[in-house]
Amino acid sequence: MDLITLKNLEKTYYLGEIDVPVLKGVSLTIAKGEMVALMGASGSGKTTLMNILGCLDHPTGGEYWLDGQEISSLTPNERAVVRTDKLGFVFQSFNLLARTTALNNVIMPLDYSLRRPTPHEAIAQAKALLRRVDLGNRLDHEPSQMSGGQQQRVAISRSLVNNPAILLADEPTGNLDSHTSVEILRMFQELNEEGITVILVTHDSKVASYAHRTIRITDGLIEDDGKSANGTSRIILPKSAFESSHASPRKSNGDGAAALSRSAESQAVATVECVPASTSSTALAVAKSDAAPQIVAKTTLVESCEEDEVIPAWKLAAATHLPPTLLTALNALRRNKMRSVLTTLGVIIGVSAVIAMTEIGAGSSAMLQSTIATMGANTLMIQAGSARTGGVSMGAETAITLSPQDCDEIMKQCPAIAAAASVVRMRGSVVYNGRNCTPMNLMGSSPMYLEVRDWTNMDEGEMFNDGDVKNANKVCVIGATVKKNLFDEDESPVGKDIRIANVTFRVVGVLAKKGANMMGWDQDDIIIAPWTTVKFRVSVSSMNTMNLSAAAAAADAVNTIENLYPAADSLYPSQSTTETANTPQIVRFVNVDQIFAKAISAEHVSIAVDQVSELLRERHRCPKSGDDDDFNIRDMAELSRMLSSTTNVMSGLLLIVALISLVVGGVGIMNIMLVSVTERTREIGLRMAVGARSYHILRQFLVEAVVLCLFGGAIGVVVGRIASIVVRYFMQWPTAISIPAIVASVAVSASVGVIFGFYPAWKASRLDPIEALRYE
Description:
Elements: E1 2-15, E2 18-31, E3 35-39, H1 46-53, E4 61-66, E5 69-70, H2 76-86, E6 87-90, H3 102-107, H4 119-132, H5 148-160, E7 166-170, H6 178-193, E8 197-202, H7 205-208, E9 213-218, E10 221-226, E11 233-236, H8 239-246, E12 271-274, H9 281-287, H10 301-304, H11 313-321, H12 324-335, H13 337-343, H14 345-375, E13 379-384, E14 388-389, E15 392-393, H15 404-413, E16 417-426, E17 430-432, E18 435-437, E19 441-445, H16 448-452, E20 458-461, H17 466-470, E21 475-478, H18 480-486, E22 497-500, E23 503-511, E24 526-530, H19 531-536, H20 543-558, H21 577-582, E25 594-599, H22 605-620, E26 631-635, H23 636-679, H24 681-689, H25 694-730, H26 739-765, H27 769-774
Parallel strand pairs: 3-8, 3-9, 6-7, 7-8, 19-24, 21-23
Antiparallel strand pairs: 1-2, 1-4, 4-5, 9-10, 11-12, 13-25, 13-26, 14-15, 16-19, 16-25, 17-18, 17-22, 20-23, 21-24, 22-23
């Protein structure tokens, strides 16, 4: 049965406007089991014919039938399937993968096989083939560590790993010495005797003499088909070559190994009878039974293999669980370690910059939120409105509009308010044991003030209670700064008496340290007393009252008409200052300067503002429009949003700069991958020749780019974290780890690999295998 049939096959190359015909109507048939030599001078078209027979190229015209399938109309990927399923190649220049062991070179075609064996079976099969060509001790050697003959044997083993029906050899002895050439040709004869159809391409008649049939090609036409009329031919093989090749025992020649020196072949025959190509291997063995010791036919590959050494578990696990494309990509990167590391530098710098900048920004934001929290992120400050005298506004808190009852009603009627406290402010000096200071915050309030300000912890003592507020008791709590200014370091202020504006107060507690707020004000420079005590016992007016009094005096001075009718003298003597302080009288309207309220959460601040505004408008009989409110409500959310917005803008700018560097790293990877495609053009052609489809090549280079970016991303995350820690340690800048930034960096790294690696991978997948193999 004919295995190959060519009908009027033509091939023309188009070089610009010039047509160069190479094959001009070739017709021939090759039967199964034949060993055929295509012979001709350089430029005769024999290599082009072999490329078409090997499905590496397609004809311009005519028909090519292989094992009953028409090949000339197949797509490149369909021809690749035929190559991996039925064909094996042995190239003149060996075409082994550099920096790759002999074992991995042989296994490589199995990555693209339609019937890919398990990793263990693939390794066993490759070892069996290498041992069969006497390279069992060279499994882990790279091509640079082997002679030309050994490299050719590796190439032959690679061509057989897929159990092909046809073996094509292009000038297989062109780069070998005569002794090694004989060994290689005898190996081809042995493979042919086992039923493999062998097609040799050569210009040497001595090489052609090893074949059953010689087809001479001249100027693109078959000049002679060296097959006898009855279909048999008698090839006389060089006896001297056989004797030198199979003398036993003998030392290793220049290529480092003696090929096929077995006990059954110690005496070679001088002549070999060749029978028709259609004769089966069994009949061939019978026909040759009369000859001297014959070549012993091999059994299955695994049976001919000696006991395999133990494969490392990690290698076997990697080969079993990782996709072939990923393994191929990892091996390619491993073979170019320095270039791979340098390629990832751009991504490493970009990702580390992203991580460092994000963590610095996150730290600043966290510090900002913490600072706002110390001031009360969900705190509302309700102030009295502005008084007007003579058409002039006297400023906030000059109107007497807020009362303690407003505070009580806010607690009762505003569900979004968790706590509220009245506040009366004043200024004055504090004296203790010869020391004095003027606190920044000297106020009267209620015990709930600490809850409103999230300041429930005490360093010493305890907070005064509601009974102290009701009875206007002269007690107070002080901040850490006041304690430092008035008391010795080892002295406890609790139980000590201090004088505030000439009024004696007993210290009942020391507040926990709170630090400075976002404005830089010291929050620990504070004294808090019951608001009733400050309002009725301390003979010092608040700043607002002083301003209002001064304004009133100024008004009296201007409006002199009022002095025309002076008020009558009081019939009863007024109380002295001491009597007023000791016996405070409850007047009809008692005002407070401020009311501090706390929303139940930061999300409820806007709701709390609406509820308080509606309540106070109703109590104060203000218009519903809100334009003439006699109070003001301020919350920290607005300040927090403003500062957060500023921080986010700065963080965004830094992130954009870092992302630009990441994009630059991606461009660098694309450039390096393009260079890699150019450098590895022959490798790409080789992979296509042994069966790789375009999507295999696309995935391999795409995976390489993604792996490089992921590797760079991982290193960049570590470098970024280290940079963040260094900044925090040496520059005292706040930083905070950002898991989303790390995840996003890895995702962006993979995306950069896909985006910038796609074009080089696509370009590699579009290469023509013939042109790629010829690339220098």
